Structures are given as C-alpha cells and as structure tokens.
Amino acid sequence: MTAISRRLALIAVAWAGLCLGAGGARAGGLEVAPLGVDFVAGQMAQTLTVANRATTPATIQVRTFDWSQPGGTDRLVPTDAVVASPPIVTIPPGREQVIRVLLRRPPAGGAEKSYRLMIDEIPVPVPGQINLALHLSLPIFLVPAAPGQARVAWSARPAGGGVVELAARNDGTRHAKFDSLTVAAAGAASTAFGGYVLPGQEKRWRIPLRGVDRGGQVTLRGSGGQGGADVTIALDGRP
C-alpha cells in the first residue's frame, strides 16, 4: 500500500467512526478498539486501545467534546466534564497505547448524556507526499441507572431542487442509531446514509431524491440500534 492510499484508508475509517459504536477498526498501521465508550451507572473510568502496526512511530492527539444537535445538526464543544489521558502520545512501531477516558463528575438526571472523543493523527511531513491523517470521532454515552428507550418520530418536507429534508425527533431518554437508511419516492431511491439521534433532540438530513412530489410521500427503510426504520412519511407540503 502506498503512503497516499494508506492515508486515504485512514480517512475512510474516520467516517466509519461517526456511525459505529462498538468493535474496532484498522486502517494502515493504526488500530483503534472499541469504536465507542459507554459509561453505565457507577462507572467513572473506561479505556480504549490504539495500536501502531506500522514500522514507523505514530503520534496521536486525543480530545473530548460535549455533543448536542441544535437545529438538527451535530455540534461539538470542547469539554472538561470528560477527559482523556494521555492527551497526546507517540506510539512506537509494533506497540499499543491505552487511552483512559475519565468522568470528572457523576452524571445527573434520568436521560443519557452524550460526548465525543476525537483521535487525530499528527502526521510527519514528507516532501512530495499528501499528508492526510487519521481523524476519528468516537461516541461516548453516559447511561443512567434506568436507561429507558429512544422514541423517534419521523417527518419530511421537500426542500427544493430535488432534495428532501428528513427529520428524526427523539423524545426518549436514550440515543437511537441508524445505519444504511434509504429514502424512496416515485421509483427513485437515495444513497445510503445514517447517524445518531440524541435523546431529547432532533437530527436532520438533506437527501437528494428525484421525483419528489410536494403533496406526496416518501418511504424510509434501514437498520438501527433501536429496531431500524420501515415507515411511510407524508411530505408536509412546504417548499
């Protein structure tokens, strides 16, 4: 594998990390596992492992962010409520580094709390090469003693230009995760998409889709951590 193709593979894993919440991933010489951290009631520390299988050292930076979805989009704000240690480290070739994820204070309230952990590879500049580095975003969930369930309601509206805006509102107390969602209308279907819908919040997607009828309907199908989706949604008629 060339240096450029290795770096592009790392980018692919970074996008995968936005939707995956468990297991592990390998890209080029770096391995990360698990791809998400859950704190259950009473836990104040968790770990994940970053392994360097390459023949050269790899330096990574680890940061934590508060995660919310105002206006239907993901927003990340730096936080010290959850910390990662060490925050920056160089991993020798063939070695592993354990990253400790620590809560500064116990979670409060009955709803799940959401954070994200960013792992960034700090590339070594090489003349004549494109330095595309690993940028992995992992979900962190603080699960209350009575975790509850997600309660997701879907809506859709035409957004003009052959685009449908799909919205998922979660009025439950736990996140919902969806994979391989597709929207279909008038015989046309979208490419697959997915993501998380946090408790008490809304997630929106703008989906290119031919044949959208303002007074019609769309069909949504896909898998997910809360039973997936298989629903028909009437478009609300707004342009």
Give a written overview of the molecule.
Residues 1-22 have low confidence and may be disordered. This protein has one helix at 3-16; strands at residues 25-27, 30-33, 37-39, 45-52, 58-68, 75-78, 82-85, 88-91, 96-103, 113-122, 135-142, 152-158, 163-170, 176-185, 188-189, 193-197, 202-208, 217-224, 229-234. It has 239 residues and is mainly β. The protein folds into two domains: 3-142, Immunoglobulin-like, CATH 2.60.40.10; 152-234, Immunoglobulins (Immunoglobulin-like), CATH 2.60.40. Helices cover 6% and strands 50% of the residues.
Quickly describe the structure:
The chain is mainly beta and 239 residues long.
Apparent shape? globular
> What is CATH's topology name of the largest domain?
Immunoglobulin-like
| CATH-level-2 architecture of the largest domain | Sandwich
SSE series: HEEEEEEEEEEEEEEEEEEE
Task: Work out the number of β strands.
Answer: 19
For the residues shown, what is the average pLDDT? 84
Terminal Cα span: 48 Å
From the alpha-carbon coordinates, what is the Rg to the nearest angstrom?
20 Å
- In total, the number of domains comes to 2
Which range does the strand content fall in?
A: over 45%
Relative helix content: under 10%
Count of alpha/pi helices: 1
**Fourth CATH level, the homologous superfamily of the largest domain:** Immunoglobulins
Structural class: mainly beta
User: What ranges have pLDDT less than 50 throughout 5 or more consecutive residues?
Assistant: 1-22
Largest sheet: 6 strands, mixed
CATH class of the largest domain: Mainly Beta
